[in-house]
Design goal:
The complex is a heterodimer of chains A (503) and B (254).
Chain A: H1 4-10, H2 15-23, H3 26-30, H4 42-45, H5 58-67, H6 75-79, H7 86-94, H8 98-106, H9 112-118, H10 141-158, E1 178-182, H11 186-197, E2 201-205, H12 214-217, H13 226-238, E3 242-244, H14 255-260, E4 263-268, E5 274-275, E6 288-290, H15 291-299, E7 304-305, E8 308-309, E9 317-321, H16 325-336, E10 341-346, H17 357-365, E11 369-372, E12 374-381, E13 387-400, E14 406-419, E15 422-425, E16 429-430, E17 462-464, H18 467-470, H19 475-502
Helix pairs in contact in A: 5-7, 5-10, 7-8, 7-10, 8-10, 9-10, 11-19, 15-16, 16-17
Chain B: E1 3-9, E2 14-20, H1 22-27, E3 33-37, E4 45-48, E5 51-53, E6 58-64, H2 70-75, E7 84-89, E8 100-105, H3 114-122, E9 126-131, H4 139-145, E10 151-154, H5 161-171, E11 176-180, H6 183-195, E12 200-203, E13 219-222, E14 225-228, H7 229-232, E15 235-237, H8 243-253
Parallel strand pairs in B: 8-9, 8-11, 9-10, 11-12
Antiparallel strand pairs in B: 1-2, 2-6, 3-4, 3-7, 5-6, 12-15, 13-14
Helix pairs in contact in B: 5-6, 6-8
The chains are: A alpha/beta (503), B alpha/beta (254).
Keywords (chain B): 2Fe-2S, Iron, Iron-sulfur, Metal-binding
Pfam families (chain B): DHODB_Fe-S_bind
Cofactor (chain B): [2Fe-2S] cluster
């Protein structure tokens, strides 16, 4: 698919790249300090829903792009689950061709504005950056990705869509092939984008009344504003992807219905949103909420609980169980709703916290307390049957387990009760039960089993990816699955078409 | 899609409406429910699918003032387009010929049992219907079940529901009991049928945010296992539901 123009855009050997490399010496480049993302003041931001990270200015972005050494064998790309051509997009930023930078990103990702915000860069691209070897902070790849996406989106918006024709695709050979995507989260969107670009007729079905899946109902606005997600969805609409809401495939429409309606390929990306519990006493008390209940209420502004109002948590104490990204979202949301005390309760130590570093830092700046090495044993009710306290077992770190993390072991007899008004359980998610999938093999946990290289399930027309396959993982891995599935499904169709032609 | 084709106001409290949505009409079975969001400002509320006509592409729900919709009920009219309707959700009631079935519900809490009564009758069961309240608010519901009930009884000040059901269970051989309504009543009836070893199903009516298994508000312990009413229910074996815990949750959520 690589055209000459595209090659010029991404090739390290193209003239402009070579010229750009010569413009500054390595010494000059490495002397530039890593950019600092402009953030809203912590004291101010906990009182509103505005996005905390304000985004880089153009000059900040160009300067940060200069830090990138344009390595011949870039480590960053190897760590990117969707293999974004990171040096190529950064060098386009350095030469101020922001539109071209987006084109580079668009070759591999449909959600740059989202990934620039929510990817754990420190474990991925930035982890592979050459600067780490020099004991210097890596190039701020995530911030730059976000800059490129935001810059172009704002440009589009200011042009007021006068050129609404985003180069409408020429009728494709594949336009007669209807593809259904079940679920509009990151994996489904990535798949839909790739298939639409290849010319297929793609329809995305969503059970809820808005598109974006976990990007909408899970991640709060102060991390990922809804308009950013909507803009990415609009871009997909512009290339021909159809979106259908309020449709629960397997209930509203069966998989047989889809096949009857002529869908030749189905990508199942229904995610993992079923809440997990620890199985300890008191988890069903009023006042103990799942992460989803809390975040859906926050994100969809359904603050009013029947008979109990969480719109204000003033003078309330909130315990968030767990220390993943969801837990950070919940604890920070609680602070924004006015909680007097909001704490993370985590059974391992500080350095084992799985959430993104930036989120942990933001949570701390905003006043969240971290009660590490404590594990909930029980939720205790008051005389009215409402949550009153959580009983915690103090832990200490033992030997590292297979994952390399130290196993927490209880400290015998060291148990405390912490008084709380609300507990939010964020200890992971289970796969959403796929409803009446025909002939698809599932794991014991309810994950769809697929061939890892093609994302193909045991049923010939059905592919699957994202959290429904992996269990709760990250946005970028879900997207990676979507792209992989699109590639292999498209190849399968091309194969069929070739074979039919030969006949 | 989602247009109100017909609306019948049974009382100032209760309205029955026929909504056009061919996919839901085609797939709906007794026991299923829909999540409805009338306008973007409304919460998403679960409603039992009371009836469905695949031929007309419509289904019926009954909404009640109690669902915090007092103002809304007044403003709804025919040809009104509802913002969002998702369904059919939940597991269908297992309909077959059990023999004699006693179906018991209370007031507006009676709504979830209406489609079950109809389907059980059509499957050849002898249906004894017990309405545990009989006021102007709910009298309208009688018409929905009368054609499908071999016997209709209603409790009164002289004869409480529990007494009434006890008498029915004494007088005839009952093969299945289906109950819905307030949790304390379901608990009491479940105890009564447990002693007599009569299989009993309850249809739970719970608060939900999404209806597709995400929020977990509708969780209930059944036989020691955590179930979600939205995806595992709303019908459960009443002899295994932890009604005490349910009641404690509902005191704060209803």
């Amino acid at each position: 698919m690589t055209t000459i123009e595209e090659n010029n855009l991404i090739s390290r050997d193209s003239g402009w790249r070579e010229e750009l490399r010569k413009r500054f010496t390595t010494k000059e480049r490495t002397a530039v300090p890593r950019v600092k993302m402009p953030e809203m003041d912590a004291a101010y931001r906990v009182r509103c829903d505005d996005e905390v990270n304000q985004g880089l200015s153009t000059e900040q972005a160009v300067l940060e792009a200069r830090r990138c050494l344009d390595c011949p064998d870039p480590g960053c790309m190897k760590e990117c689950p969707v293999s974004n051509n990171i040096p190529a997009f950064i060098k386009n930023v350095e030469r101020r061709n922001f539109g071209e930078a987006l084109k580079v990103l668009s070759l591999t990702t449909v959600l740059p504005a989202v990934c620039g915000r929510v990817c754990p860069q420190e474990k991925q691209c930035e982890h592979g950056c050459i600067y780490n070897k020099m004991k210097k902070p890596p190039v701020a790849i995530g911030h730059l990705e976000r800059f490129v996406a935001d810059y172009n989106r704002e440009l589009d918006e200011s042009v007021a869509r006068q050129s609404s024709a985003q180069a409408v695709q020429a009728p494709s050979y594949f336009a007669a092939i209807k593809i259904a995507v079940v679920g509009s989260g990151p994996s489904g969107l990535a798949f839909a984008g790739d298939m639409a670009k290849r010319g297929y007729d793609v329809t995305v079905f969503e059970a809820l009344d808005c598109f974006g899946g976990v990007l909408k109902y899970g991640i709060p606005q102060f991390c990922l504003p809804n308009h950013v997600v909507d803009a990415e969805i609009e871009k997909l609409r512009a290339i021909g992807v159809k979106f259908v809401k309020d449709t629960f495939v397997g209930k509203t429409l069966s998989y047989d219905d889809l096949q009857e309606q002529g869908f030749k390929g189905i990508y199942v990306a229904t995610g993992a949103g079923k809440p997990r519990f620890m199985g300890i006493p008191g988890e069903n008390l009023p006042g103990v909420m799942t992460a989803n209940e809390y975040l859906i209420r926050v994100n969809f502004s359904q603050h009013e609980i029947y008979g109990q109002n969480v719109a204000t948590l003033k003078q309330k104490r909130v315990a968030v169980i767990g220390a993943g990204n969801t837990a950070m979202d919940a604890v920070r949301a609680a602070l924004r709703l006015g909680a007097e005390k909001a704490m993370i309760i985590y059974r391992r130590g500080e350095s084992e916290i799985p959430a993104r570093q930036e989120e942990v830092r933001h949570a701390k700046e905003e006043g969240a307390e971290f009660l590490t090495l404590h594990n909930p044993l029980e939720y205790i009710a008051d005389e009215n049957g409402l949550l009153k306290a959580v009983r915690l077992q103090r832990m200490e770190l033992g030997e590292p387990d297979e994952s390399g993390r130290c196993t927490p072991v209880p400290v015998e007899g060291d148990i405390i009760d912490v008084e709380v008004d609300l507990a939010v359980v964020c200890v992971g998610f289970l796969p959403n039960p796929p409803v009446s999938l025909p002939d698809v093999d599932l794991s014991r946990n309810g994950n769809i089993l697929v061939d890892g290289s093609s994302m193909k399930s045991s049923s010939p027309e059905i592919y699957a990816g994202g959290d429904i396959v992996r269990g709760a993982a990250t946005v970028i891995l879900a997207m990676g699955d979507g792209r992989k599935a699109a590639k292999s499904m498209a190849e399968a169709f091309e194969q069929i078409i070739r074979n039919t032609r030969l006949d | 899609m989602n247009i109100i084709r017909k609306i019948v106001r049974h009382s100032e409290y209760t309205a029955e409406m026929v909504i056009e949505n061919p996919s839901i009409a085609r797939s709906a079975r007794a026991g299923h429910f829909v999540m409805v969001r009338f306008t973007p400002d409304c919460p998403r509320i679960p409603f039992t699918i009371v009836d469905a006509s695949p031929a007309d592409g419509t289904f019926t729900i009954i909404i009640h003032k109690g669902a915090r919709l007092a103002d809304l009920i007044g403003s709804l009219h025919e040809d009104y387009r509802i913002g969002d309707v998702l369904g059919p959700l939940g597991q269908a009631f297992e309909i077959r010929n059990y023999g004699t079935v006693v179906c018991c519900g209370d007031g507006v809490g009676f709504v979830p049992i209406i489609p079950v009564i109809k389907a059980l009758k059509q499957a050849g069961n002898r249906v004894v219907t017990i309405l545990s309240e009989f006021t102007s608010e709910t009298s309208c519901l009688r018409a929905n079940v009368e054609p499908y009930s071999d016997v209709i009884l209603h409790s009164s000040e002289e004869m409480a529901t529990l007494e009434l059901i006890d008498r029915v269970l004494t007088d005839e051989k009952v093969d299945l009991t289906v109950i819905t309504g307030p949790t304390p009543m379901m608990k009491a009836i479940a105890e009564c049928t447990r002693v007599r070893q009569i299989p009993t199903r309850c249809i739970l009516n719970m608060v939900m945010l999404d209806g597709v298994g995400l929020c977990g508000i509708c969780r209930v312990m059944v036989d020691g296992k955590r179930m979600l009413t939205c995806i595992d229910g709303p019908v459960f074996d009443a002899h295994h539901v932890d009604f005490d815990q349910l009641q404690n949750r509902q005191r704060h959520f209803v």
